[in-house]
Amino acid sequence: MTPVRDVCVIGLGLIGGSVLRAAAAAKRTAWGATTSESDAAAARAQGYDAGTDVAAALRRAAENDALVVLAVPLPVVDETLHLVAEHAPNALLTDVTSVKSPVLRAVRRWAPEARYVGGHPMAGTAQSGWDAGDAELFRDSPWVVEIEDDTDLVLWAEVAEFAISLGAHVVPLSASAHDEAVARISHLPHLLAAILATVGAEGGPVAMSLAAGSFRDGTRVAGSRPELVRAMTEGNREALLSVVDDALGRLGAARGSLASTGGLAKTIQAGHQGAQAFADHRAQDRVGVQLSLAAPDAREALRALGERGGRVTGISGDQATAESS
Ligand SMILES: NC(=O)c1ccc[n+]([C@@H]2O[C@H](COP(=O)([O-])OP(=O)(O)OC[C@H]3O[C@@H](n4cnc5c(N)ncnc54)[C@H](O)[C@@H]3O)[C@@H](O)[C@H]2O)c1
Ligand SMILES: O=C(O)C(=O)C[C@]1(C(=O)O)C=C[C@@H](O)C=C1
């Protein structure tokens, strides 16, 4: 039986604030700290155990062998890891950062004794700060829990179980597979939303007065806090460059075709199929499978499940209940 640990959340904005609320709702003893006086005060006003002394929150985590969840922006991950190394060096540590490879490197460098299993909930909104948080944010959402060749599966299972207890289903992936996928389905969309919003706004008051569903949906995430979008896109530079090239190639082909024959059929048909693939993936029947975390090839089996689009929905002892595509 995996122990139910206390939870210490560092960073109490949209995501950390949602983790703290959801952990408390799941009956965990949970506390948090943030450098934002206003986020901490808003959390306290709603009865949560929150403050601005990050070092003290981490010392309490060390005393209680709590799970530490880093929910801070990527640019302050290094400095937060220095505090982890000083105040809770052996902590069971996870994070929610939108890019995984730089965080993995930073943990290995700055907090090498931490028992780290990286994470990334694929849920959010364009809002920031404590007030934007929601205990139900992660319900029925994917939450990547990272598996590397040296990941301790007992710790992996504990972090996965935590994500599941907040309502998510777990997608096991390596940092590099995660970063390649989110470049396509999160970071490129954020970049394109920024460009769509810019081009639309350049149309002036007439364009703005006519803007309806397609503009609103295509540009929604352009309203996100610019620092967060910069951090995740610039932090995933290599993978994003590759999908930007892909997108530019397709845009160039569409332009060429529009200019020469006036036809956009190929581009629009391919896009329609892409949207259908997303809908089909969501609606597909999944096959239930059991995976033994004690099996010698468990890491490979879990990663293969994640790479096929499967997910872990429950953990009991050394058994993972999963759904495979
Ligand atoms: N916004 C999303 O949709 C989304 C989704 C999944 C993951 N993430 C990731 O979650 C993390 C947090 O994003 P967010 O959307 O909650 O941002 P946010 O701006 O809403 O919250 C960030 C919080 O961290 C605090 N903070 C900043 N510097 C700090 C420091 N040095 N020490 C302690 N606290 C500090 C801020 O005061 C704030 O409370 C980011 O790494 C982001 O990439 C975001
Ligand atoms: O729904 C939104 O507003 C989001 O931007 C959420 C979103 C995304 O889908 O790109 C943003 C960043 C993440 O790291 C994960 C999820």
TrEMBL record:
Segments forming domain Prephenate/arogenate dehydrogenase: 5-289
This protein's record includes keyword Oxidoreductase: yes
Superkingdom field: Bacteria
Group of enzyme by EC: oxidoreductase
Sorted UniProt keywords: Oxidoreductase
Record bears the keyword Oxidoreductase: yes
Enzyme Commission code: 1.3.1.12
Pfam families, sorted: PDH_C, PDH_N
Matching SUPFAM superfamilies: 6-phosphogluconate dehydrogenase C-terminal domain-like (SSF48179), NAD(P)-binding Rossmann-fold domains (SSF51735)
Gene Ontology terms, MF aspect: prephenate dehydrogenase (NAD+) activity
Family: Belongs to the prephenate/arogenate dehydrogenase family.
Protein name, UniProt field: Prephenate dehydrogenase
